[in-house]
Amino acid sequence: MYYALKVWSDIAPLNFHEVAGDNADILIDFPRSQHKDHYPFDGPGGAVAHAFFPGDQPIAGDVHFDNDEAWTFRSSDPREMDLFAVAVHEFGHAIGLSHSSVNESIMRPYYHGPVGDPLQYHLPYDDQLRIWQIYGLNSNLLRCSSMCSLGTQKVATGSIVIKQRTAEGRELKQKQKLLKKLNSICGEEAELLFRIQ
Fold this sequence. Notes:
By secondary structure, this protein is mainly α.
């Protein structure tokens, strides 16, 4: 679960800490069939997990994984149920993201198999953009000094690559909003530091 939450906290200003008891914003459970939330699980296959959006309800933010599934971790077999991939998706709901129609998105409505090594996984651009719209950027993504320089590794890996996609129309406006946010952190030099594709 740590790695699935870390995917989100690596790019947005979110901090997740394990606490004892039931007084948490996100409760994680592995129930079977009926489990007091009116969304029963159906055994192996079918509904494998569900999560609740943040809010004021007692169940808000909670994530449930069907305990009847044969969960795997770090398996590349597409026939197996990868706990990491499902957890990243469900935690996306728990922090406020709905499903996405973008094919590469982890927030697609249906399970599409393992996503690879959790230590190497990076959220697709659509998911990054959508979480930034809610929470803003994680300041750790930016390595701003008095010269407002950015660590070259982050640029090289594409962690802060701003892409313009003409298929969705809204991208240019979102790109401008993100650049404005970057300028507020790094100053006007941000335009020179980020590749705009």
